C-alpha cells in the first residue's frame, strides 16, 4: 500500500502569508480522498507560529502602565484641570508596579490560548483580565488587612482590569488570519 499526496491547488493569502493547499491523498490500492489542509508555512518555507513570548512580554511591560494611564486619564476627566495631565504618567509608573502581576497573568492566558485580535477573543481576554485583576486586588487587600469597602474596590478593579486588558489586546495581540490551527 503506497500513500502519497498530490498537490492539486496552492494559494497564498497576500495579507497574512498563509498558504492554503488542496492535497489529494492517493492510495494505489484503495479509493482517493481529497482534504483541504491549512499550511503554517510562508512562501519562503518558514514556519509561521504564534508569537507566544512576544505577547507575554508586551502584556508584562505595557499592561500595567496602560491600566495606570487609564486611571490617570479618568482623574483628569474628573478634575477637569489641565494640570491634572500629570496624573497620566504618574499613573503609568504606578501601574507598572501594581498591575505587573495581573497583566502578566492575562498575557500568559492570551498566549496559551493563542488569542488574536478578533471580537470573540477580545471579549474573552477582557473578562479574564477583569477576573484576574479582581482576584489580585482581593488578595492584596486581605494581605494588607485594610478595612476598605470590598465590593466597591472589586467593581473598580474589574472595570479597570477589563478595560486595560481590552486596550492592551487591541494594541498587541496578533492580527487574525483566515486560517487558524487549533
Structural features:
about 180 residues, alpha+beta, 2 domains, 3-stranded antiparallel β-sheet, 5 helices, 3 strands, about 55% helix, globular
Describe this structure in words.
- With 182 residues, the protein is α+β, with helices and mostly antiparallel strands.
- It has helices spanning 52-79, 87-98, 100-112, 119-144, 150-172; strands at residues 3-12, 19-27, 33-39.
- The model is unreliable at 33-41 (pLDDT under 50).
Q: What fraction, in percent, of the residue positions are helical?
A: 55-70%
| Assembly of the depicted chains | single chain
By DSSP (H or I, 4+ residues per run), the number of helices equals 5
Number of strands: 3
SSE arrangement, N to C: EEEHHHHH
The shape is: globular
Structural class: alpha+beta
Rg, rounded, reads 23 Å
Strand order of the biggest β-sheet: 1-2-3
Alpha carbon gap, first and last residue = 31 Å
Strand content: 5-15%
Amino acid at each position: 500500500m503506497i500513500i502519497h499526496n498530490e498537490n492539486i491547488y496552492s494559494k497564498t493569502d497576500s495579507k497574512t502569508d498563509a498558504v492554503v493547499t488542496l492535497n489529494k491523498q492517493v492510495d494505489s490500492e484503495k479509493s482517493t480522498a481529497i482534504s483541504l489542509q491549512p499550511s503554517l508555512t510562508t512562501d519562503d518555507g518558514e514556519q509561521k507560529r504564534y508569537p507566544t513570548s512576544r505577547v507575554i512580554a508586551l502584556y508584562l511591560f505595557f499592561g500595567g502602565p496602560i491600566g495606570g494611564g487609564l486611571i490617570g486619564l479618568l482623574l483628569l476627566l474628573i478634575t477637569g484641570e489641565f494640570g491634572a495631565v500629570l496624573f497620566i504618567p504618574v499613573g503609568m509608573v504606578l501601574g507598572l508596579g501594581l498591575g505587573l502581576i495581573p497583566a502578566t497573568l492575562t498575557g500568559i492566558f492570551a498566549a496559551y490560548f493563542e488569542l488574536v485580535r478578533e471580537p470573540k477573543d477580545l471579549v474573552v481576554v477582557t473578562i479574564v483580565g477583569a477576573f484576574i485583576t479582581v482576584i489580585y486586588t482581593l488578595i492584596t487587600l486581605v494581605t494588607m488587612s485594610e478595612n476598605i469597602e470590598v465590593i466597591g474596590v472589586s467593581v473598580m478593579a474589574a472595570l479597570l482590569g477589563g478595560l486595560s486588558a481590552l486596550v492592551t489586546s487591541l494594541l498587541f495581540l496578533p492580527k487574525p488570519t483566515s486560517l487558524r490551527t487549533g
